Amino acid sequence: MEEIGLEPEHGRHVARLALVLFDGLAPLHGLGLRERHLLHAGALVHDVGMSVADRGHHKRSYHLIARHSFRHWKSREVGFVALLARYHRKAAPNIKHGKYSALPRRDREAILRLSAILRLADGLDSAHLSTVQGIDVSCEGETVRLRLRAERDCGAEIWGAERKADLFESVFSRRLCIEAANGRRPTENRALEEGGNYPHVEQLA
């Protein structure tokens, strides 16, 4: 299905970044191999809705994935991946959303955490140029620091991730600091200072 997307390389690069973030943030999210596989799948197809239209493409991605016949995925897994694509932008997972609220609590919590990670990975390829080639992840008290390795200026990618970081900060109750590995322009998001809580998003323990 990834080939349906207008820019499959973007999906593949976002998937690579998402897995790097997942592995680096393991002590924080506490998820396992099953969720890692589902994140990878969701990242690959998160933008398939762009094949229909740009506007609202996250919702179109959800419907395309949910209705697609996957040979190696069970219906529960397909629904999980479809929701990850649905929540890679715009509205956060919301307990008022029927498909999301109908899931077991374990799956709701996993989707909430993985959506936050997927949004960051997508933001880190906001220009669709595969600029970021590596990420050094460190958890320093109440701060998560991402140091981006790139062969050219990655200011656009820092800005892209910064714009999509508020769900991450709300879900994990951590401040996010993103900077280039060469020390260029450290940035801090302000979601925690401003409350950082999405309405109707389940707060994790």
Write the layout of secondary structure elements.
Layout: H1 8-24, H2 26-29, H3 33-45, H4 57-67, H5 75-86, H6 98-101, H7 105-123, E1 132-140, E2 143-150, H8 155-163, H9 166-172, E3 175-180, E4 187-188
Parallel strand pairs: 2-3
Antiparallel strand pairs: 1-2, 3-4
Helix pairs in contact: 1-3, 1-7, 3-5, 3-7, 4-5, 5-7, 7-8, 7-9
Salient structural properties:
12% strand, single chain, 9 helices, 205 residues, 4-stranded mixed beta sheet, alpha+beta, 4 strands, Hypothetical protein af1432, globular
What report would you give on this structure?
- With 205 residues, this protein is α+β, with helices and mostly antiparallel strands.
- The protein has one domain (2-188): Hypothetical protein af1432 (Orthogonal Bundle), CATH 1.10.3210.10.
- Helix content is 47%, strand content 12%.
- It is built from 9 helices and 4 strands.
- The chain has helices at residues 8-24, 26-29, 33-45, 57-67, 75-86, 98-101, 105-123, 155-163, 166-172, and strands at 132-140, 143-150, 175-180, 187-188.
- It has a 4-stranded mixed β-sheet with strand order 1-2-3-4, covered by helices on one side.
- Strand 1 (132-140) and strand 2 form a beta hairpin.
- Helix 1 packs antiparallel against helix 3, helix 1 (8-24) crosses helix 7 and helix 7 (105-123) packs antiparallel against helix 9 (166-172).
- Mean pLDDT is 83; it is low at 186-200.
